[in-house]
Amino acid sequence: MKPQHWPLYGLRIRTPRLELRLPDLELLDDLASVAADGVHAPDTMPFTVPWTDCPPAERGRAVFQHVLSTVANWSDRDWALSLAVVHEGRVVGRQDLMARDFAVTGEVSTGSWLGLAHQGRGIGTEMRAAVLHLAFAGLGAGVAVSSAMTDNPRSLGVSRRLGYLPDGLTVAALRGDRVRLQRLRLERARWEEHRAVEVTVEGLDGCRAMFGA
C-alpha cells in the first residue's frame, strides 16, 4: 500500500531476525489468527487486562479491532504504535510502543505478546530491543518504562537482559483478585550501555512529527 495519508504504514524496524511494521488489513488478519491460536497457557493470565479469556474467534476479532482503534485514536499527544512482528515471513506476535505527552515527558512504555508456537526462542527480547531503538535513537526518548507481574519470569527476564532496573511495586485487580506488578525503568544512558541487538529503522522521517518528537 502507498501510505500517503498515514505514513506510519511505511515505518519499518528491522533486527537480524525480525521486521516490525504497522499491519495492513491482510497482515492484521494474520496477527489476529496468531492471537486466536493462543498466546499463553490456559491456566495462567500474564495480562492485567484479561483479553485472552474469550473464545478464540472473539480473541482474534478483539485484536483486529484494537489495532485499528490505535490508528483511529492516534494523536501526537497520546499514541500507541501497535506493530506486527514478522519472523521468516510469518507474523509471530505484536509489539506496542506507547506515550502520552511525549514532547514534554520524553517517556515511552511498551507492551507485547507472542504466539505460543514462537515463545522461548529469544524473539521477545529482540522485538523489545527493536522498539527501544526506535524510541531512544529514533525519537530521542529519555526513559522507557514497563511492568510485569511478579510471577511472570519470562517478561521480567526480557527487561533484565535489556538493562531495565526495578522501579517499585504496584498492585492491580485481576479477575477479582489482587495481583502484584514489578515496575521497571530504563534510562537512556543505561540503554546505551546494554545495546546488544543491531537495529535499523526505515521510513521514520516521514512520520516523526506524528509522535510529537
UniProtKB/TrEMBL annotation:
Q: Which regions span the lipid bilayer?
A: none
Q: Name one GO molecular function term.
A: transferase activity
Any idea which UniProt keywords this protein has? Transferase
EC number(s) given by UniProt:
2.-.-.-
Query: What range(s) does the N-acetyltransferase domain occupy?
Result: 17-164
What EC class does the entry list?
transferase
Q: What is this protein called?
A: GNAT family protein
Species per Swiss-Prot/TrEMBL record: Streptomyces poriferorum
- Mind giving the lineage of the organism this protein is from? Bacteria, Bacillati, Actinomycetota, Actinomycetes, Kitasatosporales
